[in-house]
Write a structure and sequence with these properties.
Number of strands: 18
Mean pLDDT: 88
Distance between the termini: 82 Å
Shape: elongated
CATH architecture of the largest domain: 2-Layer Sandwich
Structural class: alpha+beta
Largest sheet: 7 strands, antiparallel
Bound molecules: biliverdine IX alpha
CATH class of the largest domain: Alpha Beta
Low-confidence stretches: 1-8, 446-451
Length: about 500
């Protein structure tokens, strides 16, 4: 049983998953050089192609494949734009009198890699016809949550896995299950969070380039590629391979969850991994190549819609920020104080910046609402606050790290968005957030399937590990939160200036 120690965890990041030197057993791989001379092959080629022996190294591929197949493959290679593109060919006869194969060709450091698996011809047309209706169902959706829910549902309908999840990555690279469609008897994973370390760094980099991964059978033995090293001693780079065999650590993780097969598609936005669509099955499972291609196309559409929606969302937030400004300018009148107006400010603010509590300290008066420190507790942090710059908002997910005096209320709130709203003496508006570990809980039955303590390769222990990483931290303030807060600060400065002007005029 695996029980990775801290050193093994950092080794996770070093594991060369693209140099694994093996493929999964449902397909074969042949690498040829620029002259189409065979440089390597997986040792299952003879079996799959139904020929007497594996093609010999340093012989021409044309000695093994029919001329028509070679022509089509060469043509496909000529269409490749870069090392990170792959051409697919469906229903190709490779050997004389042999079966039909679905193939993928791509370039890998001077090699041409050919991968092939048996063609499942019966459903080819049906698979293509799935794209249109799926898009029709996505099209009218206008909010992010429903889009993710629908994507999970459609992918489950399309591919038939027991569980389909949409993961979203946070700024700290931890992951969250934001949508889920599952077989009814399965424990829900919705809302589950797991630490950044569960998907090592090199895997994240790889997933940005090769967005599609399938593991057909966690128990199947990997099929070695020979020779393991080239004449120059180099392993074959399988970054863009569909058949690549997977990290034993990851496979162990999946097995610990009872998962026998998986399929994942990365969602990349602005060159960053936004999230992934991830499917689990409790029996071995391999959708036909054409169906996988449809799912991939679908995910590209999903990505585009997501992008459009996120752009819309930030437009809307900006518009709401402007509206808040206008409202506050109108309703905050002279002769009143900010503390008196706090309920109104909070109401107008609404969920523009999510928060669990709010405090105002202005003109020597204090008022807090929701999860907010007492006046005494706030007074304790005032000296430290006074020594911070007054020119911009300060966002922190752990105020105690900056201001130790805040420890007296750290159980109540730990995240703080601090808006300095006057120069001297300092006035503040502060938005508070609760500790994250208090907000996110495991959705399923906690008594079920708890891993041994210290056992990391299990989602429950992974969830505990995530909880440890966020101990004492609130949810992160996003760039949009900070921008909105900066807008609010400037509005309040303006309002305060005007309020004092009005007072001054009245006094005249
Ligand atoms: C990959 N680990 C992944 C992926 C996910 C998780 C989502 C990428 C998607 C995939 O290929 O399946 C983690 N999956 C989860 C979690 C749940 C889930 C938490 O469904 C919970 C419901 N992983 C570890 C440790 C190592 C590790 C300690 O937890 C250390 C070696 C490695 N994870 C690891 C590797 C990959 C991975 C190497 C890439 C696998 C590959 O493509 O070869």
């Amino acid at each position: 049983n695996f029980n990775p120690t801290q050193t093994q965890l950092t080794e996770c990041d070093r594991e060369a998953i693209h140099h694994i030197g093996a493929v999964q057993n449902f397909g074969g791989l042949i690498a040829v050089n620029n002259d189409w001379v065979i440089a390597r092959h997986s040792i299952n080629c003879a079996d799959l192609l139904d020929i007497d022996s594996n093609p010999a190294i340093n012989t021409r591929l044309a000695d093994c494949f029919v001329p028509n197949a070679i022509d089509i493959l060469k043509d496909a290679v000529s269409r490749l734009r870069s090392d990170d593109t792959v051409e697919r060919l469906f229903g190709l006869r490779l050997t004389s009198g042999g079966k039909l194969f679905d193939c993928a060709v791509h370039l890998s450091r001077g090699n041409i890699i050919l991968e092939f698996e048996r063609h499942a011809d019966a459903h080819y047309a049906n698979h293509l016809s799935l794209v249109g209706p799926a898009l029709t169902r996505l099209d009218p959706i206008r909010d992010l949550g429903s889009l993710c829910d629908m994507a999970a549902k459609l992918v489950k309908d399309m591919l038939g896995y027991d569980r389909v999840m949409v993961y979203r990555f946070h700024a700290d690279e931890s992951g969250e299950v934001v949508a889920e469609e599952r077989r009814e008897d399965l424990e829900p994973y919705l809302g589950l969070r797991y630490p950044q370390a569960d998907i090592p760094q090199q895997a994240r980099e790889l997933f940005k380039r090769n967005k599609f991964r399938v593991i057909a059978d966690m128990d199947a033995a990997a099929i070695p590629i020979e020779p393991a090293r080239s004449m120059k001693g180099e392993p074959l780079d399988l970054s863009m391979s569909m058949l690549r065999s997977h990290s034993p650590m990851h496979v162990q993780y999946m097995k610990n969850m009872g998962v026998k097969a998986s399929l994942s598609i990365s969602i990349v936005r602005n060159d960053r991994l936004w999230g992934m669509i991830s499917c689990h099955h409790y029996e071995p499972r391999l959708p036909a190549y054409s169906l996988r291609t449809v799912a991939e196309t679908f995910s590209q559409m999903f990505s585009m819609m997501l992008d459009r929606m996120l752009i819309d969302q930030s437009e809307k937030l900006r518009a709401r920020g402007r509206e808040l400004h206008d409202q506050l300018m109108m309703r905050l009148a002279g002769g009143t104080t900010l503390t008196e107006n706090l309920p109104m400010i909070e109401e107008l603010l609404g969920d523009l910046i999510e928060h669990d509590g709010i405090s105002v300290w202005a003109g020597g008066q204090y008022r807090g609402r929701g999860n907010a420190p007492t006046p005494e507790q706030f007074a304790d942090i005032m000296p430290a606050l006074g020594s911070t710059p007054s020119s911009a908002v300060i966002a922190t997910s752990s105020i105690v790290q900056q201001i130790p005096e805040a420890s007296s209320f750290a159980d109540l709130v730990t995240g703080a968005m601090i808006l300095p709203i006057s120069r001297s003496p300092r006035d503040y508006l502060v938005l508070w957030r609760k500790p994250l570990s208090q907000q996110v809980t495991w959705a399923g039955n906690p008594a079920k399937s708890i891993a041994a303590p210290g056992e990391r390769l299990h989602p429950r222990s992974s969830f505990s590990a995530w909880k440890e990483t966020v101990e004492g931290l609130s949810a992160e303030w996003s760039d949009a939160d900070v921008q909105a807060a900066e807008g609010l600060r400037i509005t309040l400065l303006e309002v305060i200036l005007r309020m004092t002007d009005e007072v001054a005029i009245e006094r005249k």
